[in-house]
# Entry
Amino acid sequence: MITIKIKGMSCQHCVNSTHKALEAVPGISNIQIDLAKGEASFDGKVDIQAAKEAITKIGFEVIQ
# Structure
């Protein structure tokens, strides 16, 4: 499972937006968003950069 730290999520709407953005990235499955930890986890053989770009496009910051 791949985990990405995300800065800026503050509510359930943020969680839903992040989930939807990651769903649109080909190859990602089993998406889990943890609002309290500020993390998104998912499975799949995917370019991690594509996942990070999907998150930044909706206005959140990916923390390295």
Notes: The chain has a mean pLDDT of 94. The chain has one domain: 2-63. The first strand starts at residue 2 and ends at 7.
